[in-house]
Structures are given as structure tokens and as C-alpha cells.
TrEMBL record:
This is DUF1524 domain-containing protein. Residues 30-65, 79-103, 275-297, 318-340 are annotated as: Disordered. Keywords: Signal. Coiled coil: none annotated. The keyword Signal applies.
Length: 340
């Protein structure tokens, strides 16, 4: 009995000391760590009573593939490079026959963009003598007649001006690529002469067609040309184009042959406003480097013997109204003399 009682007392003592299947509890003032039964497993959902963070705002819908907006998103944005070294001859002779059809580029574009065309006799339907032009820049109809004093009514515009291209990447193109650029139908359009003169070598941040019906097509074409030749845009130019295209987000990338959609040309000729006509974006402040360096003005009464003298004076190319102008400088009747 004594032995059994002793054993029982010993067992009670052991249990009191927590030595059988238990851990002593030591109160040191700290919070106990949660047991594995109450600690949430890694990666498990938050407790139901905890508020979930607010959902992020839905991102803007990306531009549809194949649209001008989609293409615009891929154009690099950089500052304008210096105009140093620019010369029209950097882009090859004016109006070359790059497609080898026997006709120069100027007449190819006139034949593409005019209607009711009459060709000059003996030119194998190359030289456009007359025609009717539905100008998309102004929305007016122009009766074109070839001649030293009349051809300037319809000029051929580089949609992306050569000087603008030079300052935005064309310096890195090969001579042949620049020649193709200057004669690419995608980058050429017949245009009202005064409107083309007012545009000069401006980009979309400084000039847009007066005919609002054509602005979407116009900036889409500029975007396509810059994408084709790996050129960049300034921030102001990019923003101006994006502002126009925001009103016509489904504007497609222009046809590779550069043709003007018939419906647009017809609307331009009739002077009809486009359904999605857009106001011109605000003109951004001029960049630090000027977009163009005007030729020095020649004094009234100046006479040049030939194009060599015009170039030596630093006033080439020369146009009607410039001091020293003579129709003999404009052999192809395009309103621009001494270009080659």
C-alpha cells in the first residue's frame, strides 16, 4: 500500500510540473504565437471580414489593329534635329521616274488625282495638259491648265515635307531611300498651290488642311509615311495628330499606293463638311530649332542668268513672286524652279 501511494503521489507531482505531454507556461508579458491550427496557411485567402482593396481603374481601350491610331502608337517621339546639311538635292533630282513607267512623278500624281484629264500630244499619255482637280485641302474645284504661269494653281505636295523629314530621321536614310521618299505616291498629293505654300514644311502641330473633312485622312497619311521610313515625331506633332484621330478612331492606314478615297475627294470638291469634322488643334509654341530657315531675300529688280546663279545666291528653289523669278527656271511647270 505504501508503495502504491508513493507512486500515486509521484505521478501527481509529475503532472503538476507538466512533464507528461505538456509544456510549462511561462508568463513573460508577450503575446503568444498563434498555433498552426489558427495561423492562416501561406497563400490562403484573407479573412472574410477584411475589406478588399479597391479595384484599379480599367485601362483605356487600345486602338484597333490596322487603324491610324494603332500605327501612331508605334512612332517614336523625339526632339527635332538640327537642319544642318539639308538641301533638296539630298533627296535626289525632283520628280524622278522611280516606277520606270516612262513618266515623271509629278505627272503620275496629276494623272492619279485629277479627273477629265487631257494629255499633251506626243507624250504617250504622260504629260498632263489639263484636267479638273477636286482639292481635298481646301474643298474647292480647280481647272488645271499646264503652263509657266498657270501650273502653279495645282502643285504636288510632300505630305511629310522633305525638310521636316530631314530633321526627324531622314539624315540616317540612304541616298536611295531618300530618293524613294521624295517620289513615293504615299507621300505625294496634288494640292491647291496657295494652300501648299502656306503649309511650307510644317507638320501637323503647325498646319492642317482648311477642309476639316480631310484632316483624318491627312494625318493618317503623315503617320503612315513616317512609319514606312522609320521617322519620328515631336511631342507637339504627335499630340496634334492624336487629337485629330480621336474624333475618327477607326480611320484606316492609307492604301499603299497613296490614292485618295473617291468619297473623300468628291466631298472635298463639293465643299461638304465631314461627319466627323475636327477642329484644328492648338498651335504649339515653335520648337527651339526652327522648322524652316527662309532663304535670304533678294532685293527688288534682281535678275539671275540661270539656275547656277540662283543657287549661288542661296535662294534656290525659287518660286513665282520671289525676286529674280523667271519662268525659264521652271522647266516642268510645277511652280518651283531650280530644284535640280
Amino acid at each position: 500500500m505504501t508503495s502504491l501511494r508513493t507512486k500515486a503521489l509521484s505521478l501527481v507531482a509529475l503532472l503538476a510540473l507538466g512533464l507528461v505531454g505538456c509544456t510549462p507556461v511561462i508568463d513573460d508579458g508577450s503575446d503568444p504565437a498563434p498555433s498552426s491550427a489558427t495561423q492562416p496557411a501561406t497563400g490562403s485567402a484573407e479573412p472574410a471580414d477584411r475589406s478588399a482593396p479597391a479595384e484599379p481603374a480599367a485601362p483605356a481601350e487600345p486602338a484597333a489593329a490596322g487603324t491610324a491610331l494603332d500605327q501612331l502608337a508605334g512612332i517614336p517621339i523625339k526632339g527635332r534635329a538640327p537642319k544642318t546639311g539639308y538641301d533638296r538635292e539630298q533627296f535626289g533630282p525632283a520628280w524622278a521616274d522611280t516606277d520606270h513607267n516612262g513618266c515623271d512623278t509629278r505627272n503620275d500624281i496629276l494623272a492619279r488625282d485629277l479627273v477629265d484629264i487631257v494629255y499633251k500630244d506626243g507624250t504617250q499619255e504622260c504629260v498632263v495638259a489639263s484636267g479638273t482637280f477636286l482639292d481635298p485641302y481646301t474643298g474647292t474645284t480647280i481647272a488645271f491648265v499646264r503652263g509657266n504661269t498657270t501650273s502653279t494653281a495645282v502643285q504636288i505636295d510632300h505630305v511629310v515635307a522633305l525638310s521636316d523629314a530631314w530633321q526627324k530621321g531622314a539624315q540616317q536614310l540612304s541616298a536611295e531611300e531618300r530618293r524613294q521618299f521624295a517620289n513615293d505616291p504615299l507621300n505625294l498629293m496634288a494640292a491647291d498651290g496657295p494652300a501648299n505654300g502656306a503649309k511650307s514644311d510644317g507638320d501637323a502641330a503647325t498646319w492642317l488642311p482648311a477642309n476639316k473633312a480631310f484632316r483624318c485622312e491627312y494625318v493618317a497619311r503623315q503617320t503612315a509615311v513616317k512609319a514606312e521610313y522609320r521617322l519620328w515625331m515631336t511631342q507637339a506633332e504627335h499630340d496634334a495628330i492624336a487629337a485629330v484621330l480621336s474624333g475618327c478612331p477607326d480611320e484606316p492606314v492609307p492604301a499603299r499606293d497613296g490614292s485618295v478615297p473617291a468619297a473623300v475627294a468628291a466631298a472635298a470638291g463639293a465643299g461638304q463638311p465631314a461627319e466627323a469634322a475636327q477642329p484644328a488643334p492648338a498651335v504649339e509654341p515653335a520648337p527651339a530649332a526652327p522648322a524652316a530657315e527662309p532663304a535670304p531675300a533678294a532685293p527688288a529688280g534682281t535678275v539671275y542668268a540661270n539656275c547656277t546663279a540662283v543657287k549661288a545666291a542661296g535662294v534656290a528653289p525659287i518660286r513665282p513672286g520671289d525676286a529674280g523669278w523667271d519662268p525659264k527656271f521652271d522647266g516642268d511647270g510645277d511652280g518651283v524652279g531650280c530644284t535640280s
